[in-house]
């Protein structure tokens, strides 16, 4: 008999373990994997550029299940370069009235764009205060590359969640994720919500899908949903997608039971159901109406399709796939694809601290 033991760094917070057995293998699941990632006041960074998508992201706050209080900062970035104050002095070797006038003109133009960004940020701050009346809300404007300024601000602000619109001003297709949003989604160290608000006077009861594959990322997504304050009657669907049988020759199929595909370990329906029951218990303890659905297919397609058919308000997914050895560095392809293609908001959840890898498996 072997025990599957979770990361040793997490063992300090173990309480009552639960176990599942499949054949001769016993899996010990520790409750600390489901702890809330928001043990302190939540900190929210909202990227705002004045676009319709950015406005929709603010509308989306009302259906994001955010707690009644916290700290929020709105950031607007002027995509310009401002010459340093001593730029003219630095050109003394090639001094000319023409160069000086160019630098001065460029700086004045940049300052006007930055002032416009500041006005946008203040406008968004007012809207966010109305959407989150119990929150302490501030705003800021800066200049530079929007994505990297957002990432730097999020780290300085110690943000738990970054909210970005799906597209900025420059995106020509509603089916594309804006380059700024894509970069933030990929490079952020915290969770990122790609918000797509709905223009509905009466949105009705909320519907949330959680992409669940039994991984630590999926556990973090469950914990994030359980920690939120949802409207009574909100429905949550825990959606697990398994690999369909793969034809390898005529009349011969391989059933996907815990096999390695592309370096990522997949798991069978029974284990998913067992792990899903634990996740459901966590959600129901938070008074959330939740159920598990297991579907065969490609998760990149199934999650998007099910969300559209069911009319989901948001999809929550872990940032990384099961078995990733670089969980803190790489964005999983499923999370990236779903965020880009879904017709609803998508929240890509990253655990608030790195998981330790030592002692992850012990044999007996």
How would a textbook summarize the main sheet?
A: 10 strands, mixed
* CATH top-level class of the largest domain: Alpha Beta
What is the residue-averaged pLDDT? 76
Q: Report the end-to-end length measured between terminal Cα atoms.
A: 6 Å
Which consecutive residue ranges, at least 5 long each, have pLDDT under 50?
Answer: 1-17, 29-38, 170-176, 246-266, 322-329, 353-364
Strand-residue proportion: 15-25%
> How do the strands line up in the largest sheet?
6-5-4-7-8-17-16-9-10-15
Keywords:
single chain; 364 residues; alpha/beta; Rossmann fold; 3 domains; ten-stranded mixed beta sheet; 17 strands
Verbal overview:
With 364 residues, this protein is α/β, with parallel strands linked by helices. It has 3 domains: 1-34, no CATH class; 43-195, HUPs (Rossmann fold), CATH 3.40.50; 204-349, HUPs (Rossmann fold, 3-Layer(aba) Sandwich). It is 32% helix and 24% strand. The protein is built from 9 helices and 17 strands. A 10-stranded mixed beta sheet has the order 6-5-4-7-8-17-16-9-10-15, sandwiched between helices. The protein has a 3-stranded mixed beta sheet with strand order 1-3-2, covered by helices on one side. Helix 5 links the parallel strand 7 (161-165) and strand 8. The longest helix has 35 residues, at 97-131. The protein is elongated and about 75 Å long. The chain starts with a strand and ends in a 15-residue tail after the last strand. The model is unreliable at 1-17, 29-38, 170-176, 246-266, 322-329 and 353-364 (pLDDT under 50).
């Amino acid at each position: 008999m072997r025990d599957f033991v979770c990361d040793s760094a997490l063992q300090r917070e173990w309480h009552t373990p639960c176990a599942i057995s499949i054949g001769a293998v016993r899996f010990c699941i520790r409750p600390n994997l489901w702890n809330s990632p928001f043990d302190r006041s939540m900190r929210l960074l909202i990227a705002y550029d004045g676009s319709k998508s950015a406005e929709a992201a603010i509308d989306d706050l009302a259906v994001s299940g955010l707690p009644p209080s916290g700290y929020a900062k709105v950031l607007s970035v002027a995509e310009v370069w401002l010459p340093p104050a001593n730029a003219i002095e630095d050109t003394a070797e090639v001094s000319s009235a023409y160069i000086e006038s160019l630098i001065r003109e460029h700086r004045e133009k940049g300052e006007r764009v930055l002032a416009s960004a500041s006005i946008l940020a203040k406008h968004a701050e007012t809207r966010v205060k109305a959407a989150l009346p119990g929150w302490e809300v501030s705003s800021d404007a800066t200049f530079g590359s929007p994505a990297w300024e957002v990432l730097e601000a999020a780290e300085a602000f110690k943000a738990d969640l970054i909210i970005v619109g799906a597209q900025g001003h420059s995106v020509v297709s509603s089916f594309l994720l804006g380059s700024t949003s894509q970069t933030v989604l990929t490079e952020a160290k915290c969770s990122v919500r790609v918000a797509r608000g709905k223009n509905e006077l009466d949105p009705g009861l909320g519907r949330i899908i959680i992409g669940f594959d039994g991984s630590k990322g999926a556990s973090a997504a469950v914990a994030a949903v359980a920690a939120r304050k949802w409207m009574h009657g909100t429905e949550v669907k825990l959606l697990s997608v398994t690999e369909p049988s793969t034809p390898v020759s005529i009349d011969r199929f391989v059933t996907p039971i815990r096999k390695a595909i592309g370096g990522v370990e997949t798991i069978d329906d029974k284990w998913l159901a067992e792990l899903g029951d634990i996740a459901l218990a966590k959600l129901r303890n938070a008074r959330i109406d939740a159920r598990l659905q297991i579907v065969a297919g490609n998760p990149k397609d199934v999650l998007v399709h099910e969300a559209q058919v069911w009319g989901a308000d948001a999809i929550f997914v872990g940032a990384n796939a099961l078995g990733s050895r670089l969980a803190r560095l790489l964005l999983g392809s499923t999370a990236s694809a779903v965020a880009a293609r879904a017709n609803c908001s998508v929240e890509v959840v990253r655990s608030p601290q790195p998981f330790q890898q030592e002692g992850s498996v012990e044999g007996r």
